[in-house]
Amino acid sequence: MAFVLGILWEKVNSLEKGGITPTTTTAGTTPANAQQQPAQVQVSSDQIKKLFSQDLIKFGDDKRKLLAVAVEDPSCPYCHIATGLNSDLNKQAGDRFKLVADGGTYVAPVPEIKKLVDAGKASLVYVYSPGHGNGEMGMKALYCAYENNKFWEVHDLLYTNAGYNLLNNTVKNDKTKSGELADYLKSAVDSASLKSCLDSGKYDQRLTSDTSLASSLGVRGTPGFFLNTSSFAGAYSWKDMEAVATAALK
Description:
Layout: H1 2-19, E1 30-31, H2 45-50, E2 57-59, E3 66-72, H3 77-83, H4 87-92, H5 109-118, E4 122-128, H6 136-147, H7 151-158, H8 161-171, H9 178-184, H10 191-200, H11 204-216, E5 221-222, E6 224-227, E7 230-232, H12 238-249
Parallel strand pairs: 3-4
Antiparallel strand pairs: 1-5, 2-4, 3-6, 6-7
Helix pairs in contact: 6-7, 8-9, 9-10
């Protein structure tokens, strides 16, 4: 019982640190640091389009009417909230983040963006930024999964309550825990191949380049979203983003 209470306390504490009252938006973010965040950088359509020619995790191309960017950290509580697969965190963050399925009004944006991508209406770039601090191994697992066309399968496991606990309470960026991470993800990918990929260090530098890219787009916390050039710095409900998507798709 004490262990369970401890886990809940750590989650709530993380949420409180993560920005129930963020400096830049009214939606939750996990700032990269506790300082006041600089003013948002205005991005151009050319900047967004250019992402689709770079070596990044991406789905679709720059020819679609709606180009989406998701800047996330798989250990970040508000990234989990925006993905909607960890209803415990949504509930703990307060009523405004309570999912519709749980009697609330919050619509997680990531699944809605994915629906548009799967339908061929939108394209998506997924970029890492260390918004919470324990997501390095999880992100490298996503890089490894992407090269094997298993990104979403691994993504959806990492963004559950079990995935959150594993990254924040067990793995904690520890490279020696690659076996535990690979074992957790074995229903989505071959665990031996994933462990080999994680241990190779092939994506260590990608963490740095993704983080620099996120910073160049003016993202100072996670999650950060773009729909074309419209920025949504935080775990906005899709209800607050949908009008932009609808207008772009006309």
